[in-house]
Amino acid sequence: MHGAIVTGVSKGLGEALARLLLARDFRVIGVGRNSSPRLAGGGYRFVACDLGDVAGIDAALEGPFAELAAAKPATVCLINNAASAEPVGVLGHLEAAAIEASLAVNLAAPTVIANRFCRVFVEQVPESRIINVSSGAAQSAIPGASLYSIAKAGLEMLTRSLAAEHRAPGFRAITLRPGIIDTPMQTFIRSQSQELLPSVAMFQDFHASGRLVPPDVVAARIVDRLVTADVDQGRTYSYTEL
Ligand SMILES: NC(=O)c1ccc[n+]([C@@H]2O[C@H](COP(=O)([O-])OP(=O)(O)OC[C@H]3O[C@@H](n4cnc5c(N)ncnc54)[C@H](OP(=O)(O)O)[C@@H]3O)[C@@H](O)[C@H]2O)c1
Description:
The protein is 42% helix and 17% strand. By secondary structure, it is α/β, with parallel strands linked by helices. It has a single domain (2-181, 214-241), classed as NAD(P)-binding Rossmann-like Domain (Rossmann fold), CATH 3.40.50.720. NADP nicotinamide-adenine-dinucleotide phosphate binds next to helix 1 and helix 5.
């Protein structure tokens, strides 16, 4: 039996990944505020959890992770996918509470989940893997999207730290920059004002020029190339090379 944990399964890339993994007979734990009506079946378990409530994550995941481990899976893959592009806004105009909330979902939550994953699976399961879903924004500053960029840069260091600290032969931690995907996150970003997001024209152009890739297409490449195939420990993968 193969297991997967996917965060942010209500829509977008996370929903597409969970759906495909279920179709390939993975046992899937979906984690998030909401599930999707398109996710069902005996192999699916949804764990309701607001990832902005960082202190509550361990309690929500403890039981489901232990149950999956007790079923003795041959492989387990965590995909830290959930993220929020909110709030947009230029530094100097952001509220402290919004800064805290953004970094909670996009950086603290995946770190807490990876921490629990290491405790439960890394030494116990023959092959375990963590895929941190990052963005080109980890490398390039995008005016108005600093919080998102800051968190993604930190998330990429989470991958490198996991790779440096855990030497179990079957363990891999990797980063994925998934390219530009036709999801609600892109709809949200391109509908912002120029004042809040000075770089909004770039996102409007991604859409207008037909460059957004359907989430099902991206999910299939991820499952084929990063979940079920060999990967290099600690490496950052871009969609274009999958
Ligand atoms: N779309 C792109 O072009 C693009 C480009 C580069 C990187 N990425 C990355 O790809 C990943 C997937 O993005 P996407 O485009 O599919 O985004 P999306 O359409 O906005 O979906 C985000 C998912 O994260 C969940 N989420 C957000 N805040 C949450 C919270 N507080 N607690 C629990 N779940 C929460 C959402 O659930 P709710 O329904 O509860 O909000 C949703 O399921 C993200 O890591 C994103 O940064 C996307």
